[in-house]
Design brief:
Blueprint: E1 3-4, E2 8-11, H1 18-24, H2 28-34, H3 42-52, E3 58-65, E4 71-81, E5 86-93, H4 103-118, E6 123-129, H5 133-141, E7 145-156, E8 159-169, H6 170-177
Parallel strand pairs: 5-6
Antiparallel strand pairs: 1-2, 2-3, 3-4, 4-5, 6-8, 7-8
Length: about 190
């Protein structure tokens, strides 16, 4: 375990996790919300694993439910560019049983704290498929701000959708968290 909160642990990817991830990521109804188009082949899984073993430009974690010990999602920083103190951010809860129960928010809190307080990043960016209304609402609720749209930038199920670009700056993260005490309770 690398990072931990009340209900989840974030840990790095192990080779033996690939089979579980492959099963979780075969759910087309979820992959279309993340912008994934192609299925992952065995060779691509090996490549994914290799990329996860290097932290030069990517830091990747599995989200583990502490109670059951099962993998419920993944999260990470990718395209990290330290000279500019920027990175793209990703968070996906693959297991729908954990949707709408605060696991995403708990994961994001760990990752944002890690990105801004440990890695000293200044800017995180994400892209959200326009028809993923729950995703857009979630990202806005944790402080991400829409900065632009790639009009018809995503094609899925025979239709084009916008791709919404969003960002969060360190100063805005700190401002939104200044009313939290050390136990993450509003004061």
């Amino acid at each position: 375990m690398f990072l931990s909160s009340e209900r989840i642990e974030l840990r790095t990817v192990k080779r033996e996790d690939l089979k579980t991830l492959s099963t979780l990521m075969q759910k087309r109804d979820i992959t279309k919300l993340t912008g994934e188009v192609y299925p992952q082949t065995e060779k691509e899984w090996e490549s994914f694993y290799d990329r996860c073993q290097s932290t030069d430009s990517r830091i990747w974690f599995l989200i583990i439910d502490k109670k059951s010990g099962q993998i419920i999602g993944e999260t990470g920083l990718l395209r990290i560019f330290m000279p500019w103190r920027t990175s793209d951010y990703s968070l996906v809860i693959w297991d729908k049983k954990f949707w709408g129960k605060g696991y995403g928010r708990e994961t994001a809190q760990l990752m944002l704290d890690y990105a801004f307080n440990d890695l000293n990043l200044n800017r995180l960016a994400i892209g959200v498929v326009g028809f993923n209304h729950n995703g857009l609402r979630f990202w806005k609720s944790i402080g991400f701000i829409e900065e632009g749209k790639q009009i018809d930038g995503y094609f899925c199920n025979g239709e084009y959708s916008d791709f919404i670009m969003m960002y969060l700056l360190e100063k805005d993260y700190r401002k939104s968290n200044q009313t939290l005490d050390t136990d993450n309770q509003i004061i």
